């Protein structure tokens, strides 16, 4: 074994996974499930959630920061406007409403309880 064994219950493993660490795993789970992520696994202060082929690890560390970060996570999806409406209807605070960007993506932005910005987007025709 070379250290590349999948996490318990995971069958594919040749890719990176973002781990979001915050001080309250329950707040993290509530936020991500409101965005349509499904819980794949929960073990104490650790959880795996997924949607649209994206898997995230969520972990709790009471000393973790909740300050906004210079890092964000871009999540590609097929129907940005439907996802925006779903998030808004479930009470998720929207930082930036859906808009077409000059680089060919339509996106909206939310911030998780740990200070991480998520940019949900889908391809559109680039602006001239």
UniProtKB/TrEMBL annotation:
Residues 13-123 form the VOC domain. Pfam families: Glyoxalase. Gene3D superfamilies: 2,3-Dihydroxybiphenyl 1,2-Dioxygenase, domain 1. InterPro entries: Glyas_Bleomycin-R_OHBP_Dase, Glyas_Fos-R_dOase_dom, VOC_core. This is VOC family protein. It comes from Lysobacter arvi.
């Amino acid at each position: 074994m070379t250290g590349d064994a999948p996490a318990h219950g995971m069958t594919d493993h040749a890719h990176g996974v973002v781990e979001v660490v915050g001080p309250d795993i329950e707040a993290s789970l509530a936020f991500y499930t409101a965005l349509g992520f499904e819980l794949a696994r929960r073990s104490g202060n650790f959880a795996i959630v997924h949607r649209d082929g994206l898997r995230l690890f969520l972990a709790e560390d009471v000393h973790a920061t909740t300050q906004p970060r210079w890092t964000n996570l871009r999540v590609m999806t097929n129907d940005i406007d439907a996802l925006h409406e779903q998030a808004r209807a479930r009470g998720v605070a929207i930082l930036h409403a859906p808009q077409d960007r000059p680089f060919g993506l339509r996106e909206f932005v939310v911030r998780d309880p740990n200070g991480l910005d998520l940019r949900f987007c889908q391809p559109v025709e680039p602006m001239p």
